[in-house]
Every structure is written in C-alpha cells, then in structure tokens.
Design a protein that fits this description.
The structure is a homodimer. In chain A, strands 1, 4, 5, 6, 7, 8 and 9 form a seven-stranded mixed β-sheet that branches. In chain A, strands 11-12-10-13 form a four-stranded antiparallel β-sheet. In chain A, strand 2 and strand 3 form a beta hairpin. Chain A is globular and about 60 Å long. Helix content of chain A is 35%, strand content 23%. Chains A and B meet through helix 6, helix 7 and helix 8 of A and helix 6, helix 7 and helix 8 of B.
Chain lengths: 335, 335
C-alpha cells in the first residue's frame, strides 16, 4: 500500500473543500519508550508500540491556505527555500492532499519549541499540519484519523495529536489502520523535563536512515522488541502508581538500549558526542549522590532530563542553560 | 563442580614435587571477538567462544618458589600488600595448588606490558603463573591442560597460553574440560596494534562484575551469542584470506556490540569516557578520509587500534603517545 492509498481509506468519500484557511497547534512530544525500527518504510509503521509525553504549549502552530502559483512555506516567519530538504518533504506530503494537480498551498509554521533545546519539530509539525488540513478542507475527522494522517508525514507525529501521556499502538494490519496514538488517562503534575542542548548542528545521519541501518545491520536489534515491550508495561505501571524511580529508570534504560542497538550497527551509529557522555556521567554521579534525576535521548546528541518538581532547584543549579518544561502544569487543562 | 575438583581432574594422579623454582613467560592478548558473559561463574566458563591475538614479547614473566612463612608476592620488583585485591585473588588461586596447608609460595612477576598502555595483565599473569606452577611442580602438563588451569585464574588467561591468533573454544561440558584455547595456524606479519591509553585509573566496575550485571539485566545480551558466533566465522575468514578490512570491521563491530550490551544493562555500564568517544569519532573520521584504521576495546575506557604496517606512519602521526605492537613481527618465531 502507498501513502496515497491510506489517505483514500482515511478520507473515505469526503470531499476536500478548501475554506479560507485552516489552522492548528500540536505539541512536541518526548518518547519514554522509543519508536525505533519500522515494519513498513512507506507507511511509517513501527515494529513496536511506543509511549511519549507531550510538551503542552511547546510545539508547532500551522496555518494553511491556498496559494496561487506553486507552494509557499514559511517557518517562524522566514521563507523556506524550495530546494531544502524540509520543503521537499513537506511538498511530497502535501501532494497526498491536493484536490487538483494545479492546487497549491501556502503553509505558515511557527515553532514555540525553544530553538536551543535541540528538539525535533517534525512530530509537532506534521501533527499540526494534519490538523490544519482537516480544518482547511473541512473533513471533520476524529483524532484517530488525524493520528494516522500525521504518521504518514513522520512516525512520531502520530503521538503529537494528544497532550499528556500518549501511547502509539503499533498495530498489525498491513494498511496501518490500527497503528495510531491514544492518550493515557493519567496526569502527573509534578513531572518535569529538562532540555539540555549538546549540539545544534544537524545530525550526521537522519533518524529515518539510522533506524533503517540499525534494523538491517545490528544483530542486537533482534532483542529490541522484547526490551521495548517490557519497558512499555513498566512505564504504564509507573505512570499509574506515580512511581517516579520506575519511570526514570525505565525511560533511561530504554533510551540507552536504543542507542546500544545503533552502536552495534554497521557502520556504527554514534550520535553521542563527548559532551553527551560527560553529561550522562554527571547525571549518574548526581544520582549516586542522592538526586533522583534520569534522562532520555533521541537519535541525536541532546539530553532530556526527567525529575520531579521538588528537585527543580537542585537540577537547575547543576545544569547551565537547561530549559525546564512541566508537561502537566497547565491549570484547568484536560488531558 | 569447584575449581578444586577441576584441578584434580587436570592433574590426574600427578604428584606436586616442588623443585628449586619454576618460571615462565606468557604474552598478553587482545580479543578480536570478545569473551563476554559466563555460563559458570566458578569455573570461568564462557557463553561463547572468543578469538584473540597475543602480543608476543609483551606479557608477564613469573618466577615461583617455596616461601617459609606465608605467601610473598612481588610485582615489577615491588612487594605487593597482602590485603590488596591482587594479593587476595592470587592467594585464592594458589590455594588450589598447595601440597600442604602450610606450604607457601614466593611469586615474583614482571610485566613487560607498557604500563601506560592500559592493558589488563591478569590474562598474561595467570597464564604465566599456570606455566610456572607446571615447571615448579614438574607436572609436565600439555598446553591444553595449562590453558584450563589458567582459565580458573582468569577466563581470558586461557588464551595467553599461545602466541599468534588464538581461539578459546567455549565447550559444553559442565566440568569445562572442553573449554580451552587452541592456536590458529596463520600468521599476519603486517598486522599492527596501537595501544591508546585514555585512563590509567582503576575501572569503576570490574570486568567480572560488569559481565555478570550485563548477563543478568541487559535484554540486548540475548542477541550477543548470535553476534559473536557470526563474528568468529568472519574473523577466521579474514585471517585466512588476509582481508584486513573484514578483520577490522568485525573486531570493531564486536567490541562496539559488547559495549552496547553493557550500555543497555541496569544500572548502565558506561566504561567509555568523553575522551574515548572523542577518539572513536576521530578514528571514524580518519577512515572516512581513507585511512584503514579500526579499533577494539575491552571493558574499560582504553582503545586498541588495528591497522597494517603500510599505514604505521600515518597512524603514529595522528595519535600522540600511541604504543605500537606488531604481534607477528618476530623473525624466526613459530606460532
């Protein structure tokens, strides 16, 4: 099946009737049990389920409207070069939704993710875009359908459709119609994330390529599905019982195991920089000294701390330029 | 079975008749396919076979004689404190061979391994000791028996019984009588090793403890036996065909996969220091630039380069304080 086939299934017989404009916001998300390895490269179908926490107000706002002659994209108010990787990827995604070959889009995206945080914006970006398309074309799709459409842009985008804790259920169908995100019915107001930027440079190998290389060449990857399944159960228990130690240990162990599968790939995938390792050793020393702080990492050099609000001052003291986010600290907001 | 049971089997009905002194030299060895994980903690029986290259003149020379009152050990001419880890480990090993409870040993060991090289000396040390005991007690054991006795002191010591390329066959017997080293019938005069010391500090977790923690807690370890079996076959092909790229890739990939299993253990085992990672990235950059240099690492922070003699000057240029060893460059010596 192609992406185009899936879009047809999702939209059923809906017409795409453009309104003046469509707009939406979607949060970034940080995975505590990682999405690492696809069973279908075209449809971004994962080998395992994954679990993330969304970042509330930190994410992408996207406005979409019709454009006269060719697509036009802006990112944080700046025009995006049409020959950039970003523009090409966006254009290919929008091709799935053009009502006619000569229908063009104007897409304006503003990321509220702190630029110095080293956070990927493709998840919130494609989720916001899928919501905005739904708004623009007046499809009235439910969130499950939006999650599937967002996945076609970037796998982890399917989780950015919800706030709070979110599970992406891997599913087993060839069409991926059972592979979408669902929110977990729990909040954790005391939970804090700390973003530590190690490098702002583009990573040497994209997540997509890194994932593929790992699945194809890393013998240790064979144990990854078992590892992630165990970690998913542990994380759900931790979230349900508010067991922070279990949450932190599991998330850190899952991230380290993901990097381990990459390190054992060939050629080796070493996203860690010396400064990443220095920070990891520091976190371990702090923990040995009694500060309950854990971390997770994605396919890159940057580090995301996990800690509780009671330890915020101690953590802030230890890490310069840390950006602290409290995913559940938004009064009155439903998850 | 205990170590003592195995010693009885190995010695059969031989008497231990002390001569004036016994002495022997055994080379250090560097594994290209690692020994990582035991199936028997007491007897140092491995889960997988492993393959190493011995370092020729770099190793341990040991002289053993009877001592009047209590054991006495010297290392490189210095007395060894009786309450040190080293002395306790040596004493427990010697307990296996005392002809009477009040029989004591004087053990003098000289390591010719460059101290700044960050190489473990327990392998050459226990191999030299097993040979020296054989000489001292006039047992006339063959090398297979010596290899088994050396293993009881330190697993990898069983490989230091031979020069050149050596395979430690894991074996399947409970007694471990089929778990010993054998030499491979190939030399590789152009092969060079480069020792790079990253840290001279004692490692935070011993190899023995690290191995145990990995086997017990790292889900990715489940794929390690398959990885090592594949790598062993590749290494044998590489050695037979003098395919340096295959040798280098396989050895590096095996070492990285071993570290990957540790990184995925809990608590995480991170022997790498920032400087290790910096050096690894440098090696990868040099390789991208066309210099065929690979590396291996043991359970520690130090790095051992693999390259061919034609690239020796280029390699030396790039790494300060590198110690270069040519394991096969000893004219007239048989493997």
């Amino acid at each position: 099946l192609t992406k185009s086939d899936v879009v047809k299934i999702v939209l059923e017989n809906r017409q795409s009737e453009p309104s003046e404009f469509g707009e939406a916001f979607a949060p970034a998300n940080i995975a505590l049990a990682k999405y690492w390895g696809k069973r279908d490269e075209e449809l971004n179908l994962p080998r395992t389920s994954s679990l993330s926490v969304s970042l509330g107000e930190y994410g992408s706002y996207t406005k979409i409207s019709q454009n006269g002659n060719g697509d036009s994209y802006t990112l944080n108010g700046q025009a995006v070069a049409t020959d950039s990787t970003f523009a090409r990827r966006l254009g290919l995604y929008l091709d799935l939704f053009r009502p006619a070959k000569d229908f063009f889009f104007r897409v304006e995206t503003v990321n509220s993710i702190p630029t110095a945080a080293g956070l990927a914006s493709s998840a919130s970006g494609f989720a916001a875009l899928a919501f905005a398309l739904n708004d623009f074309f007046q499809w009235h799709l439910d969130k499950t359908a939006i999650s599937i459409l967002a996945r076609l842009g970037s796998g982890s985008a399917c989780r950015s459709v919800y706030n709070g804790f979110v599970e992406w259920q891997a599913g087993i169908e060839e069409s991926g119609m059972d592979s979408f995100a669902l929110p977990l019915p729990h909040t954790w107001p005391d939970l804090c994330l700390g973003l530590i930027e190690i490098s702002s440079e583009e990573k040497p190998v994209s997540s997509r390529a890194g994932m593929k290389r790992t699945v194809e060449t890393s013998v240790l990857y064979k144990s990854w599905p078992e590892k992630t399944e165990k970690d998913l159960e542990r994380l759900k228990t931790a979230i349900e019982k508010k067991d922070f130690e279990l949450l932190g240990q599991t998330a850190e162990s899952n991230a380290l195991a993901m990097h381990a599968t990459m390190i054992a790939a060939w050629p080796p995938l070493l996203y860690w920089l010396p400064k990443s390792l220095e920070t990891i050793h520091k976190i371990h020393r702090l923990r040995d000294d009694g500060l309950p702080v854990y971390f997770t990492m994605d396919a890159g050099a940057n580090i995301k701390l996990l800690f509780e609000v009671k330890d915020m001052d101690d953590v802030r003291c230890q890490f310069e330029n840390i950006k602290i986010i409290r995913p559940f600290d938004r009064p009155g907001e439903k998850v």
